[in-house]
Amino acid sequence: MACTIVPRARCARRVLLALLQLCMVRGRWLAAPNPALQELQSTRGWQFVLHKQGVKVWKRTGCDDHANFAVKATMTMPCTAQQLASILTTRDYDVIRKFNPTIVDGADLEWRDGRRERITYILTKPVFPLRPRDFVCRVRRERVGDAELITNEAATHRRAPAPRRTVRGELRGLHLVEPAGDGCCLYTCVHEIDPGGAAPRRLVNWFALRKPLQYMRQLRDVAAATFPR
Q1: Which residues of 32-61 are buried (b: 16+ CB within 10 A; e: fewer)?
Q2: Which of 46, 95, 99, 195 is the most exposed place for a label (fewest CB within 10 A)?
Q3: What is the C-alpha to C-alpha distance for residues 111 and 227, in angstroms, rounded to an integer?
């Protein structure tokens, strides 16, 4: 069962290409010398949005002719890299909704590669005036050195045909969780989201400005409650 990446998502391919070429960085990682990784690690091409309550957020718009946008956010979390990765990859949707309340439901459609990779269906709440969106993603978790790496790619699957009552969006990105000392970790997430359908750019920009801050703070609270220090 093959996954399909939509050719027009240029930004997403650059991010994922960079991800595949990651090796040791920040004293522990060294980056393969490629422009995509350098672009990902720097602020070039990214527009700084905010630095608030320990969260830094950037956005990138105009990735192509559609309503695609990319968001990058970083924050130090009060748990280890392995603990945070376990939260990010949990299949308990009651837990997931605590840090991502836009998700209504989801299901794992297929597991692969010794359960390191899965195809997942996700249904999200509608954002007025848009119809509900759903997504099919290939999610993979890997240990790289002492860090945790989680990648998302848009996919197709026979158990998740094109929807009728929802709009099929496309979600791609990465989660990099690095040890930061004192039992904490540095969490960096980069997402490219194409909401599909007729999504006004002003709504996309509103989402890019507000959603990552809320997401990071809620994830921090879940981590603190799940792994009290």
Answers
A1: eeeebbebbeeeeebeebeeeeebbbbbbe
A2: 95
A3: 27
- Going by C-alpha positions, the residue among 86, 51, 46 that lies closest to residue 177 is 86
Tokens of 190: 């980069």
- 9 within domain boundaries: no
Contact 77, 219 (CB under 8 A): yes
CATH number of the domain residue 88 falls in: 3.30.530.20
pLDDT per residue over 171-186, tens digit each? 778 899 999 999 999 9
If phi over 0 gives left and psi between -120 and 50 gives alpha, with beta otherwise, what is residue 163?
Answer: beta
| Domain assignment of residue 7, yes or no | no
Entry pTM: 0.77
Is the Cα dihedral 153, 157, 162, 164 positive or negative?
negative
159 in any annotated domain: yes
What's the pLDDT score for residue 63?
A: 53
pLDDT tens-digit series, residues 138-174: 999 988 888 898 988 889 898 888 777 788 888 778 8
The structure tokens listed for 212 are: 């990552």
Q: Which domain holds residue 198?
A: 35-226
Q: Please state, in angstroms and rounded to a whole number, the distance separating the CA atoms of residues 226 and 65.
A: 42
Question: How many domains are contained in the chain?
Answer: 1
